[in-house]
């Protein structure tokens, strides 16, 4: 995705590599935490980190990666990079909090609430990458990049939800979670 947006934004290669590294670290950290919060057994067919190294070490490693990503982002030229990262990480954690609340309280969100959560949670890293790229771009930034990143985040999550509902491996290795198809089925009047 980063390379596709870079066709428009033409971010210098050194900045582009930093952005890719930052997004990779944040993504890995968020998956480590997500697996703990969901009591997952497998991630991509392999045992999850917290079942190998324990919950405390996994949480510590994930937190370490968040701060390493923030540290690496400080090498970007834009003075807005840290502010952008902090804002999007707060959004990501708000979205995760919504997801956890609905799961743990057995509340089914409306479709609008679900899409808002996905926009914060899954869409956050898509949006973060694009915003950092825009901040580092020497070009006049096209207005549609962030909305497009938001749509790609929604598409990615809904596709992932659908695939997970059709995967026996997923249902055997993950705790129940609200997905767009499930929310739509529960709240549909048909």
UniProtKB/TrEMBL annotation:
<dbReference type="InterPro" id="IPR033749">
    <property type="entry name" value="Polyprenyl_synt_CS"/>
</dbReference>
<keyword id="KW-0479">Metal-binding</keyword>
<dbReference type="InterPro" id="IPR008949">
    <property type="entry name" value="Isoprenoid_synthase_dom_sf"/>
</dbReference>
<keyword id="KW-0460">Magnesium</keyword>
<dbReference type="Pfam" id="PF00348">
    <property type="entry name" value="polyprenyl_synt"/>
</dbReference>
<dbReference type="GO" id="GO:0004659">
    <property type="term" value="F:prenyltransferase activity"/>
</dbReference>
<keyword id="KW-0808">Transferase</keyword>
<dbReference type="GO" id="GO:0008299">
    <property type="term" value="P:isoprenoid biosynthetic process"/>
</dbReference>
<protein>
    <submittedName>
        <fullName>Geranylgeranyl pyrophosphate synthase</fullName>
    </submittedName>
</protein>
<comment type="pathway">
    <text>Secondary metabolite biosynthesis.</text>
</comment>
<dbReference type="GO" id="GO:0043386">
    <property type="term" value="P:mycotoxin biosynthetic process"/>
</dbReference>
<dbReference type="GO" id="GO:0046872">
    <property type="term" value="F:metal ion binding"/>
</dbReference>
<dbReference type="GO" id="GO:0046165">
    <property type="term" value="P:alcohol biosynthetic process"/>
</dbReference>
<dbReference type="InterPro" id="IPR000092">
    <property type="entry name" value="Polyprenyl_synt"/>
</dbReference>
């Amino acid at each position: 995705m980063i390379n596709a947006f870079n066709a428009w934004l033409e971010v210098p290669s050194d900045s582009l590599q930093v952005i890719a590294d930052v997004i990779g670290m944040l993504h890995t950290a968020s998956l480590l935490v997500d697996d703990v919060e969901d009591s997952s057994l497998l991630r991509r067919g392999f045992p999850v980190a917290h079942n190998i190294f324990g919950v405390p070490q996994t949480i510590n490693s994930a937190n370490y990666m968040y701060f390493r990503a923030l540290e690496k982002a400080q090498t970007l030229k834009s003075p807005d990079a840290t502010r952008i990262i902090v804002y999007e990480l707060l959004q990501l954690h708000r979205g995760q909090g919504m997801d956890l609340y609905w799961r743990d309280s057995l509340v089914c969100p409306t479709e609008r609430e679900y899409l808002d959560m996905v926009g914060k949670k899954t869409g956050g890293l898509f949006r973060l990458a694009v915003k950092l790229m825009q901040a580092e771009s020497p070009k006049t930034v096209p207005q549609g990049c962030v909305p497009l990143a938001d749509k790609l985040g929604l598409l990615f999550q809904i596709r992932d939800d659908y695939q997970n509902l059709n995967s026996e491996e997923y249902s055997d290795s993950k705790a129940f979670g609200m997905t767009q198809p499930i929310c739509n089925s529960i709240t549909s009047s048909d």
